[in-house]
Amino acid sequence: MVMSQGRGNAIAVSVLLMGMLLHCGNVWAATYTVGDAAGWSFNVVGWPNGKTFRAGDVLVFNYNPASHNVVGVGKHGYDTCTAAGQKFQTGSDKIKLVKGFNYFICGFPGHCASNMKIAVNAM
């Protein structure tokens, strides 16, 4: 009887520890403000350089929604400035990165061509 009670406690502790480890994955996610103090603006294309991003990190795009937006696109949309993707337009968008390349452009005419776009590779 005492031995089975010990196994039960060990199982309960193991389940508790696994739950805590799974929960801690979100604790390590970082939050980045795109463009730093300047925000989401023209010539932000080089902003990701030198930074290390991970899947689950959050990008915050701050901008005037009357003048800009954020569109999540694929590589083709990024290369050709084609705004066919999920559009964000709150002026303070928070977007969680997925593993691999994440591409974002401004969908307002001419803005992407003025380097208002970023490509972020999340590990």
From TrEMBL:
Gene3D superfamilies: Cupredoxins - blue copper proteins (2.60.40.420). Residues 30-123 form the Phytocyanin domain. GO terms for molecular function: electron transfer activity; metal ion binding. PROSITE patterns: COPPER_BLUE (PS00196), PHYTOCYANIN (PS51485). Keywords: Copper, Disulfide bond, Metal-binding, Signal. The keyword Transmembrane helix does not apply. Residues 1-29 form the signal peptide. One of its GO terms (cellular component) is plasma membrane. It comes from Quercus rubra. This is Basic blue protein. It comes from the Eukaryota.
